[in-house]
Specification:
The structure is a homodimer.
Chain A (H helix, E strand, L loop, with lengths): L1 H18 L15 H24 L2 H8 L3 H8 L2 H27 L6 H16 L2 H13 L4 H28 L9 H23 L7 H19 L7
Helix pairs in contact in A: 2-3, 2-5, 2-7, 5-6, 5-8, 6-10, 8-9, 9-10
C-alpha cells in the first residue's frame, strides 16, 4: 500500500516533469561554442537558479559568480549590472513559455474530434505543466518585481502570458470552424475564461501558500473535468452540460 | 471631451475607493488609548506602508521608525524583529479582507431575486474592490514572500483567501435553496470557478505587468457580464445562456 502510494507519487512527479512547458535550463539559449558564449551561458544558468531561489533583492552577484565558476568582474563585464541580468533572464523565458503552450494547444486541440476530450486533455496539461516548482518560482519572481521593473515584467506579460492566451483563443476558433464549439464573440476572453476555470484554485494556493503547496494528485482530474463542463455549458454545441 | 474623460476617470477611481474591501489603514486594529498601543499603532501603520511599497527585503526598519515618529529601539522593543512585524501586518489583513468579502456577498447575493443581476453585481464588486492599488500591493507582497515565510503566508491564504471562497460557496448554496441556481455538487469549487471567470484576466495583468496595469473602466462591465453568462450556462436554471 505504502509502496503503491510512493510509486503513484513518483509517476505523478515524473509525468509533471515530462509535461513541463519550461525548465530553468531552457533560460540559456546562446548560440556558438566560443569561450565568451560559454561563459555567458554559465552565468545565465547560475543567475537563473539564484534569482528563482532568492528573488531579486536576495540574489547575490557573488553567489552567481561562484556558481558559474567565473569572477565577479566577469559577471559585470558580461551583464553590466544585476538589473540587466534580471531582464535577460526574465525576457528569455517568455518565448520559451509561449512555444511550450502553443505546442500544447497543437497537441491537444488541433487534431481533436471530441471537444470534451480535447479540453480535458488541455486542462490536465495546464495543471501538469504550469504548477511545477520552477514555473511557480518564475511566476513568483516576475510578480514580486513587477512594480520595481514594470517595463521588463510588462514585456514578459505581453510577449509571453498574454500572447499564449491569444494563441489559445485562435486554437478555440479553429475548433469552432471544425464544428466543435459555438461561435466565440471574443476568443481571447473565452481563452482567459477557460484558463481561469482550470487554474484559479491551484494557482492561487501555490502563489499564496508557497511553491510546496502545489496541487495534489487526486485533485487534478476533478479540476480539469469540472472546468471543461462549465466551459462547454457556455461554448459547447450540446446546449448545456449536466 | 477631455474634461468628460477626466471626470469619468475621476468617478471611476472614486467609486473603486468606496468599494475597496481593504485599505492599508485597516491593517491597524489595536484597541485602547494608552501610550504603548498608540505607538504600536503608529509603527504598524508605518510598516504597512513601507512593506507594501518596498517589499520585505527592500523594507528598512529605519524608514519604519522615521515614518512612525519613534526610535528604532522602540520598533524592536514592540515587534522583536522585521519578520515578526511582517507576520503581524500580513495576518492582520486576512480577517479584514474576509469580512469585506462576506459583506459583499450579503449585499449582492443574499437578498437577490434575479441570479443574473446578482452575479453581475458581485462580479463588478470583485473587479472594483480587488484591483485597487493597495489590495494589489498586499497580494504582491504575500506572493513574493510565500517561499520565505510559508507559515505566515499559508495562514493568510487559509484564513483569508480560501475562507472567502468557502463563504462564497455557502452564499451560492443559499441561492440554490432560494431557487435561483441549480444544485451545486461542490459549492467551493463553483465559487473558485466564478472568481476565476471574473478575475483571471485583470488579476494576472496587474500582477505581472505591475500595479499600474489595473483594469480599464470600459473593460469591467464586459468582464463581469461575460463571466456571469458562462457561470449561468453551467449553474443557472435556464439551461443555457446565449
Amino acid at each position: 500500500m505504502i509502496f503503491e502510494e510512493a510509486q503513484k507519487e513518483e509517476e505523478f512527479v515524473d509525468q509533471r516533469q515530462r509535461a513541463a512547458v519550461w525548465q530553468p535550463e531552457q533560460a540559456v539559449s546562446i548560440e556558438g561554442e566560443g569561450r565568451t558564449p560559454r561563459k555567458r551561458r554559465a552565468i545565465l544558468a547560475a543567475a537563473t537558479e539564484v534569482f528563482l531561489q532568492h528573488g531579486y533583492m536576495g540574489a547575490s552577484m557573488d553567489e552567481v559568480a561562484a556558481k558559474a565558476g567565473v569572477s565577479k568582474q566577469t559577471v559585470y563585464k558580461q551583464f553590466e549590472n544585476k538589473e540587466r541580468l534580471f531582464a535577460e533572464i526574465v525576457l528569455g523565458t517568455s518565448d520559451q513559455l509561449l512555444d511550450g503552450l502553443v505546442q500544447a494547444y497543437a497537441e491537444t486541440l488541433d487534431e481533436a474530434t471530441d471537444a470534451r476530450e480535447a479540453l480535458r486533455a488541455l486542462a490536465r496539461r495546464f495543471l501538469d505543466s504550469l504548477t511545477t516548482g520552477s514555473v511557480l518560482q518564475l511566476r513568483r519572481l516576475v510578480i514580486a518585481e513587477a512594480d520595481r521593473f514594470p517595463e521588463v515584467c510588462g514585456s514578459w506579460f505581453t510577449s509571453g502570458f498574454e500572447r499564449s492566451l491569444v494563441a489559445l483563443g485562435e486554437a478555440l476558433t479553429r475548433m469552432t470552424e471544425r464544428g466543435l464549439l459555438r461561435e466565440l464573440s471574443d476568443p481571447t476572453l473565452a481563452a482567459y475564461q477557460f484558463a481561469g476555470l482550470v487554474m484559479y484554485k491551484p494557482m492561487n494556493r501555490a502563489m499564496f501558500a508557497g511553491t510546496a503547496a502545489g496541487p495534489v494528485p487526486g485533485e487534478l482530474d476533478k479540476l480539469a473535468d469540472q472546468a471543461t463542463e462549465v466551459f462547454l455549458a457556455a461554448y459547447g454545441l450540446e446546449g448545456s452540460a449536466s
